[in-house]
Amino acid sequence: MGRLFWKFFFIFWLAQIFTVMGVGTAVWALRPDAHPAFATMRDAPPFPPPGMNPDMRPLPEMHAGMPPPPGMRSDIPPMRPGGKGFLPPLLPILAGSVASLVFAALLAWYFARPIRNLRGAFDAVANGKLETRIGPAMAGRNDELAELGHDFDRMAARLQSLMESQRRLLHDVSHELRSPLARLQAATDLMRQQPGRAAELIDQLERDTVRMDALVGELLTLARLDSGMAGRMDEKVELREVFDHIVSDAQFEAQSKQCMIDIDLPECMPIKGNHELIFRALENVVRNAVLHSPAGTRIGVTATRDASGLWLITVYDQGPGVPPDELETIFEPFYRGKKSGSQSGYGLGLAMTRRVIQAHGGKVTAKNRAEGGLAIIIVLPVADA
To answer: Under the phi-then-psi rule, with left for phi > 0, alpha for psi from -120 to 50, and beta for the rest, what region is 381?
Structure first.
């Protein structure tokens, strides 16, 4: 049972107890022998005296088995002095009703107030006020309703983050597309005016079209993964071959920065999945490590297999690392870190990596290394597990 159940239980229980106490107190105060006049009559000698009729004539002697005299019933006890008994229980009922009403009102207010606050917060978020939070209004509570308020705050924060990410995406994509489109337009104009420069301008056209194609490709891949359309996931993929290819290509970028890539991988690393998606996901991680590594440092790629049938893959660098509050958000779509600068791309690479790894039944996390740098840990199931 949760805390909310026990709150209901004890409040209802206390309401019943106080109701009984109210009714009992009223009945006790209104009992006949509590009146001073009744108390005096109770202590007085009985009337008529024993063995005498009300007219003071002696009663006939009664023997066992004899019927009572005419007009006298033996099954009716004699009335107490005063002859009226208890008063009608109108006042006890009224006292109990008032006590129950007060506790019911307090109980309804206690539970209706946070629900009313939640309803107002949902209306505010539905109207676009994503900064709405309800946690401060429930600071004094510690039950399921307070947890519901905290869940609402997390939902609102998530929605606000996604909306801000989409705004950044629209800004970044429009900025990134505007420049190559302007260059394409200028190049075509120059080709018309100066046909002799066609070979030179074609190279520029090719670079800009490749850049735009890469951006659109990342957007389409991420959208396809979010919609669950990842394609075939039953291909046999050899991770060692994938990493050899990725590292071979990344070495050219690393050499320009005097960096080295160290590999410590098993000879055979089979998994099942989509070869193209796995290649792009791992390539994003390795190229990010090269991109953010200072000159003259080393990048490492290691992998081990645990007893539960999982590949534990680690890609680390010796760069500045990531602020602790960004270790999770770097995997969000369209998120670019505060220290990333202009070379961070569109903020889609690691987001796509997480979607791909999750589609293959694994997970990916990030942590700062004690000796410096960032480590990306990828967990993937072994094909024969």
So the answer is: beta
- Among candidate residues 35, 175, 292, 360, the one labeled active-site is 175
Does a cis peptide bond (omega within 30 degrees of 0) precede residue 46?
no
Q: Which residues contact 131 (CB under 8 A, 6 or more apart)?
A: 156, 160
Kindly provide the b/e burial profile for residues 108-120, where b requires at least 16 CB atoms within 10 angstroms of the residue's own CB.
Answer: eeebeebeebbee
Alpha helices, DSSP H, located in the chain: 3-29, 36-43, 90-126, 144-193, 198-226, 239-256, 275-291, 349-359
Distance of alpha carbon 281 from alpha carbon 37, whole angstroms: 97
pLDDT tens column, 263-302 = 999 999 999 999 989 999 999 999 999 988 889 899 999 9
Helix (H) or strand (E) holding 305: strand 298-305
Minimum mean pLDDT range among 100-104, 277-281, 370-374: 100-104
pTM of model > 0.70: no
User: Rounded to a whole number, what is the distance in angstroms from the first to the last CA of the chain?
Assistant: 39
Asked whether the beta carbons of 329 and 341 are under 8 A apart, the reply is no
Other CB atoms within 10 Å distance of the CB of residue 245 = 13
**Environment class of residue 354 by beta-carbon count within 10 Å: exposed (0-12), middle (13-18) or buried (19+)?**
buried
Containing 365, the helix (H) or strand (E) segment is strand 363-368
Question: Which tokens in the block code for residue 326?
Answer: 């960004």
Distances (CA, A) of 86 to 77, 177, 293: 15, 94, 94
- DSSP secondary-structure letter at 374? E
Answer for the pair 246, 282: CB distance below 8 angstroms, yes or no: yes
**Residue 175 a catalytic site member:** yes
Q: CA-to-CA distance for 250 and 299, rounded, in angstroms?
A: 11
